[in-house]
Amino acid sequence: LAMPGRHQLQNAVTALRSLSALRERGWEIPTEAAVRGLARARMQGRLERLSEQPLILLDGAHNAAGISALCRAVDEMLKMRRLHVVMGMVRDKEYEVCVREIARRADVFYACAPEADDRAVNEHTIAALAEQSCSEVYDCRTAEQALGLALRSAGQQDCILVCGSLYLIGEAEKILRSRQKTAE
User: Fold this and answer.
1) What angle, 0 to 180 degrees and rounded to 10, lies between the N-to-C axes of helices 7-24 and 31-40?
2) Burial grade of 27 (CB within 10 A; 0-12, 13-18, 19 or more)
């Protein structure tokens, strides 16, 4: 499977069962097409890799189930890496549970507020929640500020995980791609 995380195995099983049901209804779908599809499947903002050194991952998990799956994947994938988390959320999501769960795994946590009109949770609130589970928390106003600090602080073997809001993922992707172009 192209997409990392144990939860993707269950997603693949669901896709294969759907394929089987279609075949029972007369659809002619070659096995090779299913294999290629699973090998090539990607979703932006779902454990999306933007860089290797340091490893930069984007994940838009913003509810308890999504954060739980993300945490399991982080636990499996990043055993030997320091984890820097850049996180911001919106009010109508399960932000308290999400922040606490991911902060427990973070070595360093950078709280920010995504550009989401009036929906963004204040970065001070995110930082206060993170401080309950992580000893090194930075209260950053913007995604730009949080990413800049994370990039300066992270070592080449570390991981920077940007998560919590699809708004934040979109911002982070623009910021990081712009920085890559500037560096080239």
Assistant:
1) 150
2) exposed
CA dist 11 and 117 (Å) reads 33
Whether the CB-CB separation of 160 and 150 falls below 8 Å is answered with yes
Q: Is this structure's pTM higher than 0.85?
A: no
- What's at 124, amino acid-wise? H
* Average model confidence (pLDDT) across the chain: 88
CB atoms within 10 A of CB 132: 12
* The two three-digit tokens of residue 169, written as one number: 């993922």
- Residue 159 pairs in a beta bridge with 55, 83
* Residues 114-161 pLDDT 10s: 998 789 999 999 999 999 999 999 999 999 999 999 999 999 999 999
Please tell me the chain's helix, strand, coil percentages from 3-state DSSP, rounded to the nearest 5. Answer: 50, 15, 35
Structure confidence at residue 7 as a pLDDT band (50, 70, 90):
low
Measure Cα distances from 80 to 33, 128, 159 in Å: 36, 27, 10
